[in-house]
Every structure is written in structure tokens, then in C-alpha cells.
Amino acid sequence: MSDDLSKPFTKSSMSEEEIMKINKERKIQVTSFAFMIFLTILAFIAVATETIEVGFAIPFILLLAVVQFFLQMYYFMHLKDKDHGWPNAFIISGVVLSTPALIALILLLGVTKY
Amino acid sequence: MAGSVDLSKGLPSHPEKSTLEGKNKFLGFWIFLGGETIMFATFFGTFLGLREGTAGGPSAEELFSMPLVFIMTMLLLTSSLTSVLAMFSMKKNNFKNMLVLMIVTVLLGVGFLGFEIYEFVEYVHHGLGYTTSAFASSFYTLVGLHGAHVLFGLCWITTLIIRYSRSGITLTNAPKFYVASLYWHFIDVVWVFIFTVVYLMGIGGA
């Protein structure tokens, strides 16, 4: 049994259909990568060209970051897959728990500047 | 036991999750990532609270250079893509391809880390020591923590590459490579927020 686990395989057991599915998924991921690069460039442009008001540019790039967060998590790290219920639960609880901590830190530290 | 997977047919289509050990590694790693989310959020909160406290030292606007951050971002985002592609090669039992893509990932990561070290040295020359101001220490702690994660990830993936350089894809090492790639993506996610919150907001003067 331990031999089985450390034994390389000569071929893959994937059927034609599975290979087609995996190729399609790869295409989706490369597309989402291109989209992420686009969002990144957009964020840099929003700050670099000072034509956009700061009051608008900052929420805008924060929104882009959040969109990228979801692209990364759901496409690159496969959170969108059906068998990822628990990983979703862990990450969502991480985000939910850290939101009040984040807000509290910003407010408390921001009040006592030094 | 390999469970219900028929190994005589070849590599299972999800080699990282076809053994119990692989499933456990996968689940445990996501618990770890949930915790990492909380840790990084608190460091971000500290930075956001303290970033205006420059105490007469250099401010974000004076120091940060947009081209440098842009190059670093591109290096790290691309390394994220190569590690995704490596996982596809793994599922197709294409060992050589996976190894090459993982090596490219490491090289891009090394490039990123090199720029970060250069950046920190440069800032120290400009008078931003760790204890100069509240802004300085919260900046170095947050970005340095991320840099330490990058360094750790690089050592991790390099060790995996060396250890399994000749073994092919097995049910033992597939989960290890998969988890390492998840870790690498997470580093990338954190960087997305660092370049937005620390650098772009600093340069934008908000």
C-alpha cells in the first residue's frame, strides 16, 4: 500500500470528457488572469493619472481589490467548485471575524495619532 | 488505503484529494488560511490606523515609487498564474511540465523578493528606519510579514522540487504540491491588498 502511494503513474486515468472539462477550466482561469491584470493596471492608472479626484479614486481601487480577491479565491483557488463547502466556511468566517477587528483598529489607532 | 480509486487505470483525476491524507491536508490548509486572513487583517488595520503618524520622518508620498510596485505586482500575479497552470499539468500526469512551471514560479517569486529587499534598503537610506515613526514600523511590519511569507513559500516550493525532482507525480506528493500552490495564491491575494491599501493609497495621498 505504501508502494502504491509513492509510485509514479505512466498515464492519467482521465477520460476524454474529463480532459475536455479540465482544458475548458484552464481557459477560464487564463481569462480570469487576464482580467486580473486588467484590473491591476486600471487601479494603477486611476492613481497615476491625477485627473481623477482622490475622493473617487480611493474607493474605486478598493473596489477593484475586492473584485480581485474574489477572482483569486473563486477561480484560482477553486472556491467555486462544488466540493469546497468547508474551505468556503473557513474563509468566510475568517473575513467575518476580521472585519470588526479591522474597523476597530483603524478607528482606535486613528484617534490616538502620534 | 487508496479508497475506491482504481490505481491500475492510471493517475486519478484529482490526485491531490484521492487519499485520506490528501483530503486532510487540503482541509487543514484551508483552516490555516482562514486564520491567516484574520492575522493579515489585523496588521492591515494597524497600518491603516497609524499610517499618518510620520513623526517628522519621510511620508508615504515621498517614498513610494509607482513603477517599482507595478513591476513587483506583475511578477507576483504572473507567478500565481504559473502555479495554477502547474496544477493542471499535475492533474494530467505531466510531471516535467509541472516541475518547469513550479521552477518558473519560484524564479518569479525570487525576483519579487529581490525588488522588495532593494526597496527596503532604499527606504532606510532615505531615513525611514524601523523606529522612525508609527508609519515606518507599521509599514515594515505589514509588508515585511508578507515578504517573510514569500520567502517561506519559496523555500517550501524549492524543497518540494528538489525532494521530488525525479519521483514523478505520486499520491504522496500531489497533495503537497497542491497545498504549496494554494499557499502561493494566498500570498498573491494578500499582495493585491498591500499594493492597493499601502502603496496606491499612499501615493494617491488619501
Automatic annotation (TrEMBL), chain A:
Topology within the bilayer: Multi-pass membrane protein
Record's keyword terms, sorted: Cell membrane, Membrane, Transmembrane, Transmembrane helix
Coiled coil: none
GO cellular component, one term: plasma membrane
Compartment annotation: Cell membrane
InterPro entries: Cyt_c_oxidase_su4_prok
Residue ranges crossing the lipid bilayer per the database entry: 30-48, 54-77, 89-111
Pfam families: COX4_pro (PF03626)
Keyword field contains Secreted: no
Protein name: Cytochrome c oxidase subunit 4
Origin organism lineage: Bacteria, Bacillati, Bacillota, Bacilli, Bacillales
TrEMBL record, chain B:
CDD domains documented for this protein: Ubiquinol_oxidase_III (cd02863)
Record localization: Cell membrane
Major place of residence: membrane
CC terms in the record's Gene Ontology section: plasma membrane
Oxidoreductase in keyword set: no
Membrane-protein topology: Multi-pass membrane protein
Name of the protein: Cytochrome c oxidase subunit 3
